[in-house]
């Protein structure tokens, strides 16, 4: 029998911050210091005589009995337990066991145990594990977790079949970043992530796997069910955009869906590639996506930054259609002109507003900064796959017939016809509806000014046709 009279303790042990306890061969606590009692949220006197396994969580009791074996010498095993304090707080405690209480014949008759509060350490580990496998911006799983789950599921694909994968790309993120800044891009990413995650189950793996890329692994999900998820997602995006407030940029996503067809011949990586390919078909194969998703986003940004307003855009489109009828232009050229009317000044959105307010000959430096918008706009459009065919038109919409324009100094018929037409239309509308405090000109005076620049700034043949239209049909 362990006799406490034979054990000497110093005040040092009693006042240690580490919990120290002694357990006899019946697992009863025969000594503990104040730190040990505090660790278990109990008065010291209440702990003495209690069986240790009765004050730890139930699921650890078998481990407890295994560790506290008297049959063999145990070399400092350790395990952690969790208790709930009187005020409802969870506390994690690390228990270390030292079987070094022996009798006169060197038989083990008790243990010294230490107890350390590792609650904060556990929290830190949990946070670290969270950030190892989660995207810090959206809170979704990250690429590392996605890759780990892909490998895990692929090892036993039959168990998770039917299996589908959905690949998603946030359209126009580069446009948002380039024109409104990365903070606005982050807001769009977080909103898209919120909408996407709300559609799927907790058992699905919803991950952000790249800058503007998301992917969802859906175990036990047929293609039909996955395709229905795509429809729900698009509906929720439309609903969000319809309710967008003035300070919210509308968002657009392209979605691809694929499901396993032959469990014997396919891997999960094959399904992922099919879903990704289907997403790019959705992004590039449907021409209406550009008009329905990306162009409205650019329009919104230009309006928000007061670069283009609705009434001016409507006037430009009306004039484009009038010139299209007059010249009997192919539908493709008219479509390009309408789109160019909407997006040609996208580069201005990337220039600080103060750089092009009240432009006049007296502020030539600001005018030179403003002239960069054609090249900036070209770069923005070129980085967005749905609009690459418009990049050249955005670049050259300020070229002059005689080669004095910018940025490339193109002249004559080297200038795309869409740009030659838009420059006349824009000039006419600006003269009739000037910015700022300038007074508008009459139609006759505006047309006279345009005719004066035929052969220098404007294509002379197109000027004559434009004047004919304005004089005969009027506007």
Task: Describe this structure as you would to a colleague.
- This protein is an alpha+beta fold.
- The chain is 48% helix and 13% strand.
- Helix 13 crosses helix 18 (417-432).
- The longest helix has 20 residues, at 223-242.
Question: Gist?
Answer:
The protein is of the alpha+beta class and 475 residues long. The chain has helices at 11-14, 34-39, 44-47, 61-67, 119-133, 143-155, 157-160, 173-180, 182-199, 223-242, 268-284, 287-304, 310-327, 331-343, 364-371, 373-382, 391-395, 417-432, 443-452, 460-472; strands spanning 19-24, 29-32, 78-84, 90-102, 108-117, 164-170, 205-208, 213-218, 253-259. Helix 9 (182-199) crosses helix 10 (223-242).
* Number of extended strands: 9
Q: What is the average per-residue confidence, as pLDDT, rounded to a whole number?
A: 86
Our count of helices gives: 20
Strand order of the largest sheet: 2-1-5-4-3
Report the end-to-end length measured between terminal Cα atoms. 111 Å
The helix/strand class is: alpha+beta
What would the principal axes of the Cα set say about the shape? elongated
Please give the share of residues in helix.
40-55%
Please state the CA-atom Rg, rounded to the nearest Å: 36 Å
The major beta sheet can be summarized as: 5 strands, antiparallel
Low-confidence stretches: none
What portion of the residues fall into strands of 2 or more residues? 5-15%
Order of helices and strands: HEEHHHEEEHHHEHHEEHEHHHHHHHHHH
């Amino acid at each position: 029998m362990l006799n406490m009279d034979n054990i000497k303790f110093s005040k040092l042990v009693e006042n240690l911050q580490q919990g120290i306890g002694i357990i006899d061969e019946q697992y009863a606590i025969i000594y503990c210091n104040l730190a040990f009692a505090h660790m278990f949220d109990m008065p010291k006197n209440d702990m003495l005589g209690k069986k240790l396994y009765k004050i730890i969580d139930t699921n650890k009791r078998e481990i407890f009995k295994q560790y506290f074996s008297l049959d063999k010498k145990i070399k400092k095993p350790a395990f952690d337990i969790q208790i709930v304090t009187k005020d409802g707080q969870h506390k994690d405690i690390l228990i270390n066991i030292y079987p070094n209480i022996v009798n006169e014949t060197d038989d083990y008759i008790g243990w010294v145990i230490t107890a350390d509060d590792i609650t904060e350490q556990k929290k830190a580990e949990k946070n670290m594990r969270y950030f190892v496998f989660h995207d810090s911006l959206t809170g979704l799983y990250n690429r590392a977790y996605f890759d780990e789950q892909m490998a895990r599921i692929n090892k036993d694909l039959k168990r998770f079949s039917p299996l589908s994968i959905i690949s998603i790309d946030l359209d126009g993120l580069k446009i948002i970043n380039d024109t409104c800044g990365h903070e606005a891009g982050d807001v769009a990413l977080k909103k898209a992530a919120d909408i996407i995650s709300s559609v799927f189950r907790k058992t699905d793996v919803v991950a952000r796997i790249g800058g503007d890329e998301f992917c969802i692994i859906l175990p036990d999900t047929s293609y039909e069910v996955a395709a229905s998820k795509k429809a729900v997602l698009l509906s929720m995006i439309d609903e969000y955009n319809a309710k967008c407030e003035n300070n919210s940029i509308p968002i657009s996503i392209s979605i691809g869906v694929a499901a396993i067809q032959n469990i014997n011949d396919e891997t999960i990586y094959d399904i992922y590639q099919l879903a990704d390919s289907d997403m790019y078909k959705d992004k590039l194969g449907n021409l209406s996506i550009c008009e329905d998703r990306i162009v409205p986003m650019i329009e919104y940004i230009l309006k928000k930054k007061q670069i283009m307003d609705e009434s001016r855009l409507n006037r430009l489109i009306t004039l484009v259609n009038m010139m299209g009828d007059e010249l009997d232009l192919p539908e493709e050229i008219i479509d390009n002109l309408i789109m160019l009317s909407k997006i040609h000044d996208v580069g201005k959105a990337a220039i600080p507003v103060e750089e092009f307010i009240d432009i006049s000959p007296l502020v030539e430096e600001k005018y030179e900064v403003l002239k960069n918008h054609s090249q900036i706009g070209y770069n923005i459009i070129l980085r967005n796959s749905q609009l690459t065919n418009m990049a050249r038109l955005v670049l050259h919409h300020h070229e002059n017939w005689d080669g004095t324009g910018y940025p490339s100094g193109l002249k004559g018929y080297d200038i795309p016809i869409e740009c030659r037409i838009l420059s006349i239309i824009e000039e006419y509308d600006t003269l009739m509806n000037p910015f700022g405090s300038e007074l508008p000109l009459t139609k006759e005076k505006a047309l006279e000014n345009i005719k004066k620049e035929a052969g220098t700034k404007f294509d002379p043949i197109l000027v004559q046709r434009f004047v004919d239209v304005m004089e005969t049909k009027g506007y």
